[in-house]
Amino acid sequence: MKVAVVDSGGANIASVCFALQRLGVAAELTGDAAVIRTADRVLLPGVGAAAPAMARLRELNLVQTLREVSAPLLGICLGMQLLFDSSDEGDTPCLGLLPGQVGLLPDAPGVRIPHMGWNTLEPLRAVSLLDGVDHGAQAYFVHSYAAPVTDDCIAACTHSQRFAAMVQRGHVAGAQFHPERSASTGARVLRNFLEKGLA
Fold it and tell me: Are 75 and 82 in contact (CB under 8 A)?
């Protein structure tokens, strides 16, 4: 299986590649459109802000490539947010693979933003990506912006408000948390993605 990790410039890229290596997969870190187009699985990691991340994808001429890729595509953290139409962070147009706008998590009494640390997943649909991930499973989050809970949301989470922890529409999916830092839960999500795709 050919697995491509998009070289989006995010600080979590090495950790994502190492997590895949622990699952027995030697992924290729790449900014080459041809490699991404011919991959069996594509991962789009990301850490930081939406505007610089989209600028990086434009610089690599990967925006249209990612919009047209037919293999299962998994966005991670900021990479998931980039799958949506736009982000309030810098009023940034994104990839438009999923409808909706990413917004800043609101302040709430006793709640710190950014959302950083372990939190509980609330699976909403039975999909292959969530096989073996039980209601109440814990995942590790680091983010200030989040996607809304829409029909594409397959798992929710709550921190100051309920938001999309995981999304899926067709061959496109995303995890707001860091599966590479989420112990057995994250490893299961990655294994499901690698072995089952997004069927």
Answer: yes
Q: Which of 77, 94, 153, 157 is catalytic?
A: 77
* 85-107 pLDDT, tens digit each: 999 999 999 999 999 999 999 99
Is 159 considered catalytic here? no
- What is the tally of helices (H) and strands (E) in the chain? 6, 14
Which tens digits make up the pLDDT trace of 144-195? 999 999 999 999 999 999 999 999 999 999 999 999 999 999 999 999 999 9
Instruction: Identify the active-site residue in 115, 143, 159, 178.
Output: 178
CA distance 6 to 59: 13
Please tell me the distance from the alpha carbon of residue 140 to that of residue 115, in angstroms, as a whole number: 10
Domains of the chain: 3-196 (3.40.50.880)
CA 176 to chain centre: 5
